Amino acid sequence: MRTHRCGALRASDVGREVSLGGWVHRRRDLGGLVFVDLRDREGLVQVAFGPGWSPAEVMERAGTLIGEAVILVKGVVEPRPAGQANPELPTGEVEVHATEVRVVGPAATPAIPVARVRGEPLAAEELRLRYRYLDLRRPEMYRNLELRHRLLQRTRRELSERGFLEIETPMLTKPTPEGARDFVVPSRVYPGQFYALPQSPQIYKQLLMVSGFDRYFQLARCFRDEDQRADRQLEFTQIDLEASFVTPEDIYAVTEGVLVALWAEAGAPVEAPFPRLAYRDAMARYGSDKPDLRFGLELMDLTPRIGEGSGEFLRAAVGRGERVRALAVPGGAALSRKDLDALTAAAKTMRASGLVWAKRGPDGPTGPGVKALGAAALEALGLGDGDLGLAVAGPDAIALPALGRVRLEVIRLLELPPSCRHAFVWIEQFPLFEREAETGNLTFMHHPFTAPHPDDAALVATDPERARAQHYDAVYNGVELGSGSIRITDPAMQAQVFERLGMAPADVEHRFGWLLEGLRSGAPPHGGIALGFDRIALLLAGGESLREVIAFPKTAAARALFEGAPTGIPAADLAALHLTVAS
Length: 583
Ligand code: ASP
Known about the structure:
By secondary structure, this protein is α+β, with helices and mostly antiparallel strands. It contains 16 helices and 22 strands. An 8-stranded mixed β-sheet has the order 6-9-10-22-21-20-17-11, with helices on both faces. It has a 5-stranded mixed beta barrel with strand order 1-2-3-5-4. Strands 12-13-16-14-15 form a 5-stranded antiparallel β-sheet, sandwiched between helices. Strand 20 and strand 21 form a beta hairpin. Helix 9 runs antiparallel to helix 11. The longest helix has 23 residues. 37% of the residues are buried. The mean pLDDT is 95. The site of aspartic acid has 10 residues, from strand 21 and strand 22.
C-alpha cells in the first residue's frame, strides 16, 4: 500500500510519485489550500492539497479529514515554496502534492491529545495509561520502545556469540524464593492446588547446569507480588544467565561485555573492567550497597574521637558500643535551616535517632554539633570555611545507611557536579545472611542457593552472620542493575543453609526437593546473574519511570488501566476453579 514511510522523505525524493499511509496529525485550511501533517512511526510529512494538482473530489475530501484518522495518500514530492521550509523537521524541505486520498481508518475524537502544541503538558498519566494505544503514538514512546527492541536484540547477539543458549523456562511453576510473594494460579484439574508464576527462573537455570547445558540465558519475564514501592512493576524482564565451571570473574567478564555493548547500542561508550568494592567497604565509605561513585563525599568514622570533650549523648552512644559516622560537606554551610531539617528527616526515615550538624563560617564553627562532637572530633572532620559537618550515632546497621541517605540528599540539595557520567562498580562479598528487621530472624540476603565465600564455609555453622557470600551486585550511578552469585552445589551445605534459615527438612524437601535431587545427581560448579532489563532500558532511554519503557505497564497501585485488570470473574469460572471469594 505504501512506497515510503512519511518521515523518510527528503529533498532527494523531489519529483517522485509516492504512496503514503499514516495518521492525520493536524489539518490546516489556508486560502483554498489544505495542509495535512501526516504521521507514522518514522515522523511527519506535510501533505498539501491544492486545486492546481488535486482533483475536485480530493480537495473536498481533504477539507473533512479529522485528526487521528488513518488515510492513504498518493501524490508527488515537491520542494516547499521558497521561505517555507521547516528546518526542525527532517522532512521539512519537501511536501507531497496529493492527487488521491482515502480514509481507511476513521477516528473518533481522541480521548487524549496526540498532536500537542509545543510546551503543552502531557495528559494525566492515568489517562495516558487508560488510552495507551493513543499515548504510544507519541514519538518519545516510539523512540523508547525502538531502543528497547535494539537492546533486546543486542543482548541476544552478545550472549549467543559467547556460547550462551537461549532456553525458555515455564511460567506455570512452583514458588521460587526471591524474597517476594508469589502470584498463584489455581489449577482447575487439581482442586485446591496452585501453580506459582516464577519470581525468577533460578531453579530451572541451575537444573540446566546440572543437565550440562553449560551456558544458558533468557530474557526472562518474572513476577513478584510486592507491596507498592516507587517505580516497581509486578512483572518485569531480566537478562537472566547461568554458566558452569565458572568463578565470579567469569560472570563479571560476561556481564561487563553485555553492559558495554548495551551502552554502546545507546550511543554511550563505556569501558570495562568495572572497579570492585567489598560490601563492608561500600557501606563504610558510602553508607550504601549501591553507592553512586560519580560523587566522592566519603563517610568518616569519628568514634575514636568521641571522648571527654564530647556531649553526653554521643559519649553514651559510644559507651553502648555504637559508632559515630560523619560526613564533611565542602560548601555545605550554604544549606538553610529548612534543608538541615530535611536532612534530619531523611536520617530519621532510616531509623536514626537524629542528625548532628555543625557549620564552619569565617568566625569558626557554629551549630549544635560543636558541643555534641567536641573539639577533637570536630578537628578530625577537618571543616574548612563554608563547609558543613554531619554526624549520626548508632549501630552501624542504622548509622551507615542513614548517613548514606543523607549523603545522597546533600548531593541533590547542593546540586553537586558528578565527576564522571558513567560509574559502574561491582559490589562483592555480601553477607550470606541478614536479620529481618521486624522479627529478628535470620534470612537470606539474596536467595537460599547462594554459596558462602570459600574462606567462610565453616562460619555457616558457627557464626552465620559473619559468613560472607559469593554474591555480587552490578551497580551503576547508584542504581542496582542486577545480582548474582556462585551457587551451592554441595547438598550438605545446601541442607545446612536451609537449617540456618529455620526451615524444617520436610518443608525443604516439599519446596526444593526437585533442585536438591538434581544437585545430588552430578552438579558442576556454577553461578550466574540476573540484570533488570527494564531499568537498563530506562537508564539508557533517559526517562523518569519504568512505565516509559514498557508498552503496557501497571500503575504504581498495581492496576492495568488499559485492559482493566485485575478484575472479578464470573461465579461459574470461580466454581470451575474450586474457589470461593471470602468477602
Ligand atoms: N535469581 C536471581 C534474581 O532474580 C539472580 C541470580 O542469582 O542469578 O535476583
